[in-house]
Amino acid sequence: MQQKQVHYSDYLQLDKILNAQVLESDLLQQHAHDEMLFIVIHQAYELWFKQLLYEVDSVAAIMQKPALNDNSPELQTVVHRLNRTVTILKVLVHQIDIMETMTPMDFLDFRDMLRPASGFQSWQFKLVEAKLGLKYQQRHAQEYYISQLRQEHIDIIRRVESEKSFIELLNAWLERMPFFEEGENWKHYKPVSGAPAAGGNDPFWADYRAIYSGGLAEAEQSNQQYFDTVFSDGSSPAQEGRQLSPRACRAALFIMLYRGYPILQLPFQLLNSLLEIDEQLSTWRYRHMSMVHRMIGTRIGTGGSTGRDYLKGALDKHYIFAEIARLTSFLIERRKLPVLSPEMEKRLGFVG
Amino acid sequence: MQQKQVHYSDYLQLDKILNAQVLESDLLQQHAHDEMLFIVIHQAYELWFKQLLYEVDSVAAIMQKPALNDNSPELQTVVHRLNRTVTILKVLVHQIDIMETMTPMDFLDFRDMLRPASGFQSWQFKLVEAKLGLKYQQRHAQEYYISQLRQEHIDIIRRVESEKSFIELLNAWLERMPFFEEGENWKHYKPVSGAPAAGGNDPFWADYRAIYSGGLAEAEQSNQQYFDTVFSDGSSPAQEGRQLSPRACRAALFIMLYRGYPILQLPFQLLNSLLEIDEQLSTWRYRHMSMVHRMIGTRIGTGGSTGRDYLKGALDKHYIFAEIARLTSFLIERRKLPVLSPEMEKRLGFVG
Amino acid sequence: MQQKQVHYSDYLQLDKILNAQVLESDLLQQHAHDEMLFIVIHQAYELWFKQLLYEVDSVAAIMQKPALNDNSPELQTVVHRLNRTVTILKVLVHQIDIMETMTPMDFLDFRDMLRPASGFQSWQFKLVEAKLGLKYQQRHAQEYYISQLRQEHIDIIRRVESEKSFIELLNAWLERMPFFEEGENWKHYKPVSGAPAAGGNDPFWADYRAIYSGGLAEAEQSNQQYFDTVFSDGSSPAQEGRQLSPRACRAALFIMLYRGYPILQLPFQLLNSLLEIDEQLSTWRYRHMSMVHRMIGTRIGTGGSTGRDYLKGALDKHYIFAEIARLTSFLIERRKLPVLSPEMEKRLGFVG
Amino acid sequence: MQQKQVHYSDYLQLDKILNAQVLESDLLQQHAHDEMLFIVIHQAYELWFKQLLYEVDSVAAIMQKPALNDNSPELQTVVHRLNRTVTILKVLVHQIDIMETMTPMDFLDFRDMLRPASGFQSWQFKLVEAKLGLKYQQRHAQEYYISQLRQEHIDIIRRVESEKSFIELLNAWLERMPFFEEGENWKHYKPVSGAPAAGGNDPFWADYRAIYSGGLAEAEQSNQQYFDTVFSDGSSPAQEGRQLSPRACRAALFIMLYRGYPILQLPFQLLNSLLEIDEQLSTWRYRHMSMVHRMIGTRIGTGGSTGRDYLKGALDKHYIFAEIARLTSFLIERRKLPVLSPEMEKRLGFVG
User: Fold this and answer.
1) Which of B154, C145, D268, D324 is most deeply packed, by most CB within 10 A?
2) Any binding-site annotation on A38?
3) Under an 8 A CB cutoff, do C300 and A217 touch?
């Protein structure tokens, strides 16, 4: 059978893409040159948001499989696509440079014509955040946020919020890492500190806690309590306000500490790519906020908000993988690390 | 009268934009994950190409006005929009990073399904080149280029090629710069070298030619002949194979040399932005070529070309403002510049 | 006389530059690979800080001349060098990507060996801020900041703080812009609103205030009071806590509003480049803060600070040209702008 | 024992770094403002070149170990540091933006004072190329290149050229990859095509060759011969003009094809990072060439070369990992890949 002939313009549906720019200022017969840029850049952003959703969905689908660590190429795929997400976000940050070629006076030429439309109505970006793990109650200015969206989009986001987010899948994956099952590895571990067991029953973490405590300066003592909160088993899977359980946190910290072992190399890359995603999202929010401030100052945005203040509030609260980031506080120097037994080392490596 | 309510999704026609991605691999029931990226990135490129065309059209419209140099804000607008074009091109170059997250093996999953579509079928990019000033006969591999396009797009490009391009408008603008009309300025100029007049009848250029010649090293003598070709008046407005006339070239060089005078500041910025556009276009072609090579090696592209070789041929030939760039060869040190008379200086400044 | 022969290595003093890396971890015989990167990147930053100081000094020297606006190329030079400063800052922001290739575990290998050295001891960066206009009392955590520096560097910064900063020179330059001298221009202005004079005695600003007020939404009324604070003449040159006088602010706003006139084009570019400098400085601080957080979490920095909190405090307070940025709040649509008289327009243009 | 107190300025030897800028134009009492930038940017480049050498040396030291693939963290370290090299090169490319803020006229102010110094005298960059694998005879314009360097630097480069370069170490590492030893794996492979053995004696490559040939279009037949050249064993370890042996090439292609298996994941990342290094080096050379052209046009460089032509010649010839890049031409679609036996799959995975 003959495959059909594909043409670039049809394949990319350029008739749709290139005919989707109608300027309000033209409709009102007051042509404002820069409105075209305003439309095109937002469309470009939305195209990329669609791609981000597509990638996040695809990695979530993989993370949902129960047997992810078996000898499959899938963890590699997860890392690869998360790194792609980072690369896309870097271009989205850079793209703000283009928006900044629009001066405030040029924006004023058509700004009032857009009311009450607003960038806050970009439900796709909110969906990206929700899929990664940002909960409704963690959001800054929740009511305002809801008031800006159409019911159909609120419904989509709500449904996503009720499903397992990426960070929840990550938590489950960390919890079931085969290396960490009870009794299997730790029985080979030779305790050194004689410290009482903490963070579960195994002596490894008791040793680790003792070494960590010994290295804390006086002014850092609050980290000690935080350590116990993060790593010691409580009754609930993850404590109030946290999305990662003590068991998952122990696994994540272990990965950071012993990342050199073959079986931990990709898991380490995965954790690292999540921190990069958060950093790029955060840089994007920051530059976006600065740009809005530069564009409208202390005036009210087209959607009725004091745009910059909303964005500023989101800056601190919308970190999604903050619990991973904070594990950095609990690292100790490589030369002080508890020594693993040969049996453990073997299990962390390739077939000999 | 109540203005109608605008909503973000409607305003941006997101129903069109976000529903224009149909994967060939899905139609053939062999889903290839990375095809979505392939579609989205090309659509993003085409959106930005539309914006580039829009900006180039707008500056060409301004350059067409006969009285551009009168006290109007329009030259500023030209410079501003050309700088925006540079900023957009920088993001387009950066965007190649995203494409490079697709490995050759991932591309192979759907590459054959796209035949005979090809990036060479992007008529918008060719239109950008044509509007700026690239002629059909200057193009590398002309027949191949024609064979890839639909008749309707060939017609559009041909029509544009028959109209005044930006570089032709630039030539006209440089030729009629008010400062350079015969007799008006140069009569105040005090010749120093006693060299015979060159490049028109005025003694300024005779002096300049003498100073320039004196600074050439032996190995650079070929520049002398090139100097005379570029600057001395011949019968035709611009010599065979050139798009800028001697008169226009003299104006452009004068702007570079005496850019400090108020009336020359924006003209200098304009010339500079054109060189930046060429450089970004060229960087884009170069990275594009490298990316294609990395993706398909020495295989034949989906459109039937040896992709990389075509792109490589374009690299050297598609400089649009090369004649401006080469004027750099004719600069002399500031401290050797012919001194202008007070009358001339006055005409180059603001109202006193 | 024969000019001496210059060699690349001697000219660049590469013997000094390339032999200035001694690793503490080597001295302690515990070689930590990444310490070399740590040293080199900080040296690269300090080289660029030296260049920033050099450029800021050079533009300040120009701004100090009393007759800057006469037909000289110098304002162009100021804009050019400020734009270079922006370009350098963009690379400095990008350079953080390199630092982020150092993982927290790799940093731990030598972190303790550096105490009590700290990035806060970079006096050159503080000097850049001080020269631009950041006052000691505006700084976040002043005592900590002083405690980190050597007396000789404190002395340098103090001396700079006592001299005219760039923003003060800017204020003086704006105040004496020739276009704004009393009686000269405004006598030709035809008032329209009949509003009582505000912001000095001239009717132009009375009109402007009336138009601006008419466009404010109810929720934006606080801008009205702020408008009067910023623009109306008080007794002191600049009010408490402000570095720009009402007269200078009026000139700056006028430049933004009527930037199209030839004489205002470079002044507009100058104001714009200052906003870009602030934005890049701010992006640098933000990414720097994120990077420190990612590197040490909630631990204490080598210099004894909770690094991230200090940096976070600086984020909001260290905007230098915030008063320029906030003028954006006072713009009105182009089509509502008061019409200037032909006499005024003539004075804003080139020689006819 | 008390550790000594470290101070930022001493640690970074800022007295050396910040006092190594002496302007020739100052010595000649003709201060040229932009010469400072010229010095500082070259010093920044040389600092980073030193870092590149340091990283390349460190990965070469690891690659030299005979037992690299045993369960050690070292391959991860190699990949990590090569990726850092890429990150550094990206900043070096970006840094050209700063150089481009120097206009040709500004360069002319001090250009002649630098003769005969020239960027070609940067021996560190040549050393980076040599350490990675660029041979003297592969260099463009070899005599010119030698004529520019001091004997001591020529000696250093020559010595490096006589040692094992990174690409030679890579070749050895690929050749001895444990998976590929004769008889061990391939005996489990089930041949399908019945094609005669090629590329060694094993039936896997005979099958692969048959599948590959079947997918070649008529115009691509030259790839077939190239395939046999690259993969089939000849007498010498690597054929004339090649740095990778057929055995090493087979290993590299196998890694690209089956990169999903755990044991191949890092080797794939390693190959990929080498292609990125080449691409960044090449982009750097391209932008450097464009910048030189823009700066001096067709004039002779300070070192006596027609700068741009030299740089242009290097562009095509100085690819170091071109043999890896060209393997892309030999990929086949994933769904056509020969199926590995369970025994082989097991050897490609982690401990079960």
Assistant:
1) D324
2) yes
3) yes
From C73, C76, C262, residue closest to B350, measured CB to CB: C262
Question: In chain A, what residues touch D72 (CB-CB under 8 Å)?
Answer: 260
Instruction: Pick D330 or C318 by higher pLDDT.
Output: D330
Residue ranges in chain A assigned as alpha helix (H):
8-11, 14-17, 24-27, 35-63, 74-99, 104-111, 123-132, 142-148, 151-162, 166-175, 203-215, 222-231, 246-257, 262-296, 307-317, 322-325, 342-347
How far is residue D229's CA from residue D256's CA, in Å, rounded to a whole number?
A: 19
Structure tokens at B269: 């910025």
Query: pLDDT (tens digit, 9 = 90+) per residue, D256-273?
Result: 999 988 889 999 999 999
Distance, CA of B308 to CA of B306 (rounded, Å)? 6
C174: containing domain: 24-109+122-347
Bridge partners, A350 (sequence order): D350
C167 occurs within a structural domain: yes
> How many angstroms separate the CA atoms of B59 and B69, rounded?
14
Quick: pLDDT tens for C285-312: 999 888 888 888 878 777 766 666 667 7
pLDDT tens figures, D118-167:
777 889 999 999 999 998 888 887 787 778 889 999 999 999 999 999 99
Does the beta-carbon distance from A76 to D349 stay under 8 Å? no
Name the B residues in 91-130 with CB < 8 Å from any A CB.
Answer: 91, 94-95, 97-98, 101, 113-119, 121-124
Q: Does A73 touch chain D (CB under 8 A)?
A: yes
Q: Which residue, B288, B296, B310, B311, is CA-closest to B107?
A: B296
CATH number of the structural domain spanning residue D170: 1.20.58
Peptide bond into A116 cis (omega under 30): yes
**Do the domain assignments include residue B107?**
yes
Contact D94 C94 (CB under 8 A): yes
The answer to whether the CB of C324 falls within 8 A of the CB of C249 is no
Per-residue pLDDT, C1: 40
B-contacting residues of D 191-230, CB under 8 Å? 217, 219-220, 222-223, 226
Does the beta-carbon distance from A114 to B6 stay under 8 Å? Answer: yes
Q: Read off the tokens for C39.
A: 């040293």
Residue C280 belongs to some domain of the structure: yes
HEC secondary structure over chain C: CCCCCCCHHHHCCHHHHCCCCCCHHHHCCCCCCCHHHHHHHHHHHHHHHHHHHHHHHHHHHHHCCCCCCCCCCHHHHHHHHHHHHHHHHHHHHHHHHHHCCCCHHHHHHHHHHHCCCCHHHCHHHHHHHHHHCCCHHHCCCHHHHHHHCCHHHHHHHHHHHHCCCHHHHHHHHHHCCHHHCCCCCHHHCCCCCCCCCCCCCCHHHHHHHHHHHHCCCHHHCHHHHHHHHHHCCCCCCCCCCCCCCHHHHHHHHHHHHCCCCHHHHHHHHHHHHHHHHHHHHHHHHHHHHHHHHHHHCCCCCCCCCCHHHHHHHHHHHCCCCHHHHHHHHHCCCHHHCCCCCHHHHHHCCECC
Domain containing A148 — which CATH number?
1.20.58.480
Give bridge partners of residue C350 from the DSSP assignment.
Answer: B350
B325: chain D residues, CB-CB within 8 Å: 293-294, 297
- Does ipTM come in above 0.90? yes
**Number of domains making up chain B:** 1
- Residues with Cβ < 8 Å from B148, sequence gap 6 or more? B118, B120, B121, B303
Residue D117 has φ and ψ, to the nearest 5°, of -60, 155
On whether residue A163 sits in a domain, the answer given is yes
Whether residue A257 lies within 8 A of chain C, CB to CB, comes out as yes
